[in-house]
């Protein structure tokens, strides 16, 4: 059975790309990663594309479809750059095509669930819901939420879970994107409270700095981060 894993964050900068890499590292069979929209890749100091980071860490195939210069929400970046960007439906078609010849397709969002990926108001939540409705029999859509370890994470995570459930999507799990070397009281409590308040299990806890590992170490350690 083909699995399409849609990965979102509770916010930007929560460790989503490293979580995608970890999921790709442990995924069975033919695994590919798709980043529908990447922003912040232009200017004098461009960000490293997330697809490049995933490939560097895992060796898995990874690609982005739309690249925008400024580090803003995609619809805002496109408007400021005065360029058209594809509607969410086009991204759904790309995922469906990849699902035909891969065992696992991992889709990395931009920021959180309600960040607009196109100029028609389409979001990652829309993309996930459309995939769940349109994928052929024998394919499953799973949504993973990457969240912070510290203060504020309970509220942000509960809001993300509620938004998914309002569209009939039950998230399969949470990933804590960056666990500090010396966790404090808030982090330790949140690790216990996240599944309690959301009803969603914590699938993995990724150590701070995991993205700096070389490929050999990342692939060797990634399975140990999953619970």
Automatic annotation (TrEMBL):
SUPFAM superfamilies assigned? P-loop containing nucleoside triphosphate hydrolases (SSF52540)
Q: Its principal location?
A: cytoplasm
**Where is Mg(2+) annotated to bind?**
17, 50, 108
Keywords linked to the UniProt accession: ATP-binding, Biotin biosynthesis, Cytoplasm, Ligase, Magnesium, Metal-binding, Nucleotide-binding
**Top-rank EC class of the record's enzyme:** ligase
- Which compartment or compartments is the protein found in? Cytoplasm
List the GO molecular function terms.
Answer: dethiobiotin synthase activity
TM region(s), chain numbering:
none
E.C. numbers? 6.3.3.3
InterPro entries noted in UniProt: DTB_synth_BioD, P-loop_NTPase
Give the pathway listed in the UniProt entry for this protein. Answer: Cofactor biosynthesis; biotin biosynthesis; biotin from 7,8-diaminononanoate: step 1/2
Q: Which reaction does it catalyse?
A: (7R,8S)-7,8-diammoniononanoate + CO2 + ATP = (4R,5S)-dethiobiotin + ADP + phosphate + 3 H(+)
Q: Which cofactor does it need?
A: Mg(2+)
Database matches in HAMAP family: BioD
Summary of the function given for this chain in its UniProt record: Catalyzes a mechanistically unusual reaction, the ATP-dependent insertion of CO2 between the N7 and N8 nitrogen atoms of 7,8-diaminopelargonic acid (DAPA, also called 7,8-diammoniononanoate) to form a ureido ring.
Q: What is this protein called?
A: ATP-dependent dethiobiotin synthetase BioD
């Amino acid at each position: 059975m083909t699995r399409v894993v849609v990965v979102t964050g509770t916010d930007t900068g929560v460790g989503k790309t490293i979580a995608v890499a970890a999921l790709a590292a442990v995924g069975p069979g033919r695994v590919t990663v798709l980043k529908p929209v990447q922003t912040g890749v232009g200017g004098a100091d461009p960000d490293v594309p997330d697809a490049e980071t995933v490939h560097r860490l895992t060796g898995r195939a990874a690609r982005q479809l739309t690249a925008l210069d400024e580090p803003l929400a995609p619809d805002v970046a496109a408007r400021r750059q005065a360029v058209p960007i594809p509607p969410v439906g086009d991204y759904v078609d790309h995922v469906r095509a990849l699902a035909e010849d891969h065992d696992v397709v991992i889709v990395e969002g931009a920021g959180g669930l309600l960040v607009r990926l196109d100029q028609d108001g389409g979001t990652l939540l829309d993309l996930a819901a459309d995939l769940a409705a349109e994928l052929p029999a024998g394919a499953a859509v799973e949504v993973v939420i990457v969240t912070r370890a510290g203060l504020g994470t309970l509220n942000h995570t509960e809001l993300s879970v509620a938004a998914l459930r309002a569209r009939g999507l039950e998230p399969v799990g949470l990933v804590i994107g960056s666990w500090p070397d010396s966790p404090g009281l808030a982090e330790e409590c949140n690790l216990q409270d996240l599944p309690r308040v959301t009803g969603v299990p914590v699938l993995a806890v990724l150590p701070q700095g995991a993205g700096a590992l070389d490929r050999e170490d990342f692939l060797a350690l990634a399975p140990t981060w999953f619970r």
